[in-house]
Amino acid sequence: MASDVAPWVLNAVGGGRVGHTLTLEKVADERVLGRGGFALTSAAFRHGGELDPSFTAIEEDAVAPPLEWTPPPPGAQELVLVAEDADKGHVHWTVWGLPPQKGKLMEGETPPRTGKNAHGNSEWLLPDPPLGEEHRYVFQLFAIDLPLTLMPGATHEELVRNLDGHVTAAAVLTARFEGHEVEELDVEDLDDVD
């Protein structure tokens, strides 16, 4: 358990303790958080709100949630997104190659470049906390002062090494999700369609 997480990170994430050191704390500092009004939002949830099951392992056709951001401060060359489980430390998504301007990723949209998640593949890792256990998923958007030369499929560790010392602004958006039972549909529950 990461007991020495910086107070500014705890405040940015919201919801109490953080179980590990987030990318935000590894590559940025309090001065760049929200710099120049840089902000990350979603039409699907508010900061600290609940993640809809359509973005989790509960639903069969689940996809990544929609995200939107304001323009980064001048001098940014690229935007990088990292989504992590604040409570368990799993990396759920690494995305880079986003243009340094106001923008968005639509629900389920394939980003320009992605790296490996905690399961070793390059896609949105569907949140799947244990039954009755709530986790927080922290979306961290970084504006950086140089374009990354990482190849798609790079690891989170490689991404962190390339971000260190180059973050000019950061924005954070947190969603909560509690583990549910996957409900099986019974054929008898479906109405006949003629």
Structure overview:
This protein has 194 residues and is mainly beta. 10% of the residues lie in helices and 26% in strands. The strands form two sheets. A six-stranded mixed sheet has the order 2-9-8-4-5-7. A hairpin with a 5-residue loop joins strand 4 and strand 5 (91-98). The longest helix has 8 residues, at 156-163. It holds the Pfam family PBP. Residues 102-123 are annotated as: Disordered.
Counted by DSSP, the helix tally is 3
Mean pLDDT: 91
- Largest sheet composition: 6 strands, mixed
Q: Please state how the strands of the largest beta sheet are arranged side by side.
A: 2-9-8-4-5-7
Structural class: mainly beta
Poorly predicted parts: none
The shape is globular
Alpha carbon gap, first and last residue: 56 Å
Secondary-structure element pattern, one letter each:
HHEEEEEEEEHE
Helix content: 10-25%
Question: Which secondary structure elements does this structure contain, and how are they paired or packed?
Answer:
Elements: H1 7-13, H2 23-27, E1 40-41, E2 49-50, E3 67-69, E4 78-85, E5 91-98, E6 103-105, E7 113-114, E8 134-144, H3 156-163, E9 167-178
Parallel strand pairs: 2-9
Antiparallel strand pairs: 1-3, 3-6, 4-5, 4-8, 5-7, 8-9
